[in-house]
Amino acid sequence: MRKMRVRTEVLGDLPHLLEVSIEGDLSNASPTDPITWVRGDEGMIAFGEYKRIEISGSDRFEKARKWWQDSLRELDIHNNVHGSGTGPILFASFAFDSEEPSTLLIPEVVIGKRGERRWITWFGDGPQPEVKSIKSESAPLPLRWSGENGDAWRSHVAAIVDLIQRGEAEKVVLARALDGSIEGEQRIDTRRLLQLLGSDYPNTWLFSNQGLVGATPELLVRLSKSLVTSRVLAGTIKRSGDDEKDLALAASLARSSKDLEEHEYAVRSVADALVPLCSSTNVPESPFVLHLSNVMHLATDVTGVVTDSVNPPDVFDLLARLHPSAAVCGTPRERAERSIREVEEISRGRYAGPVGWVDIRSDGEFGIALRCGQIDESKKSIRIYAGCGIVAGSDPAAEYAESEAKLAAIQGALARH
Question: pTM here?
Fold first, then answer.
């Protein structure tokens, strides 16, 4: 069987990645709906669809590895750039629950930028696609919001606190969802939504994949040349908008026993997951405070070096070990997952699951799909999500206020869309 040709070449100057589009006919290549992984002005934007599959099951990360490796054997790869993220790329978005569908997609064209390097990868025997700049117009969306009311969700939090105080768990992450629908003929423009989120939250990873769109501050795992990095966020406080007050709030967050306890559970779950796969790990003794435009988080960057062996761990091994972490599930993991199923009453879909990319070396970068929404195929409705870590000292009213602050991230961008 003749292999599909794939080429990667150096590019010259580019507009911002969120303004990049291409000329030419591709399958499923809507200029307003790219596949995206961007932070600042670095990352990747992709178009078209060479192959796609949905998978599920407890062995989904192994299934993903096999499908990617089988797909690579079909390709005749010519890479004149080399390095992490070049060549054909698998974009993946995994559901939170292993029994719900996860999406794997290999696009036809990928445009990437890292530092001073810019490149394009494309499938087929045709000439290199022409890169162009595209602008998205703002148009306020008449969204009507509906979903679980505050009283019901606060009662769910109280039920989880009672469970924890009885000693049945240490931490449980409880999520809620809101549904927004457009009245009229307008549609949600994924690219414009990403641009607004990037403007509001420049320190986050912007992602879009098959309708899932968001800006996550939490890097689940990056694997690059055997170096592993994971940014853990747990413990949150809403910003006031006044710089002096926010400094005081950051100091109180850093001293909060409730938030430090929640954060320690999350850091410990990541560190414990990495130890069997790494020859060395580094876990800072104390978290730092990550400042976003609407909230502040306790944050810790855990790093490690994967074991040097005949078959060293790849990014799929790391994902299988790390997900779901205590930051989005709780601890002990099995009891927290059971509590979520019993109390939460929503389908998380791909919210709080790993979202990112894998290259031909099985290196990659995955965030946790937070501060996000799932746009339906008509682009006239969106379901947005937020979650809070519940521990013994949690107050239902305070947790509800925290969830509102997290939902405001994507609601604010949609309001200015």
Answer: 0.93
